[in-house]
Every structure is written in structure tokens, then in C-alpha cells.
Amino acid sequence: MSDFQDRVLKCADCGADFTFTAGEQRFYQEKGFTNQPRRCKSCKGSRQDRPAGGGRSGGPPNRVETATVCAGCGRETTVPFKPTQGRAVLCRECFQATKSGGAPSRPY
């Protein structure tokens, strides 16, 4: 078995030095972890306390709202993504209609 020695690492979040102890290194080896820790205990704890996705009920941290025209009914709507060129975009109502087996309403 290898002899482990305490090592000083730099936190990827706050830049502070922290100690990766010999005991922690032994634990990492026993568990088969190949990467050393990147964050100090304080930053690691604060990351674990945050909701997944950066807030707002676990949604993406920077959600994009894009104005577009619905391919089903022709109304202007906003969607929570950047539409891909050449693909039809539906408003919420038309999208729900296609999910439930109906057809989106078409403008006349």
C-alpha cells in the first residue's frame, strides 16, 4: 500500500489553499476515485446547498426566452429556447394538442 502525505491544493471556486489529507487520499484510492478534489470544504458545502440547476425551482440558471411565430396557429409566442433553423416551433396550446393526439389549430 502507498504511503500518503498531506498535499496542499488550490480551490477551483475561491482560489484558497486547502489540504488534501493522507486519510482523504487513502479513502479516494479505496473508493476507486481517480480525480483529486477541486474545491475546499467550504465551497463544496455551499455548492451542495444550492438547488440543482442554479435556482428557480431547479430550472436552468440562464433560461433564454425567444419570440417566434407558432407554426400551428400563426400567433406570436415566446419559447424557452433558441429555435433551430428549419424546424417548426409551436406555442404551448398547439404543442399540448399534438401531445394529446390532436392536431394544432391552423390559421385560415
What is the terminal separation in angstroms?
A: 77 Å
Average pLDDT number: 82
Please tell me how large the radius of gyration is. Answer: 25 Å
Number of structurally distinct domains: 2
Q: Tell me the β content.
A: 5-15%
Helix/strand order, N-terminal first? EEHHEEH
Oligomerization state: single chain
In total, how many beta strands?
4
Task: Tell me what the structure shows.
- The chain has helices at 22-31, 41-49, 92-99; strands spanning 7-10, 17-20, 66-69, 76-79.
- By secondary structure, it is α+β, with helices and mostly antiparallel strands.
- It has a two-stranded antiparallel sheet.
- A hairpin with a 6-residue loop joins strand 1 (7-10) and strand 2.
- The mean pLDDT is 82.
Secondary-structure blueprint:
Blueprint: E1 7-10, E2 17-20, H1 22-31, H2 41-49, E3 66-69, E4 76-79, H3 92-99
Antiparallel strand pairs: 1-2, 3-4
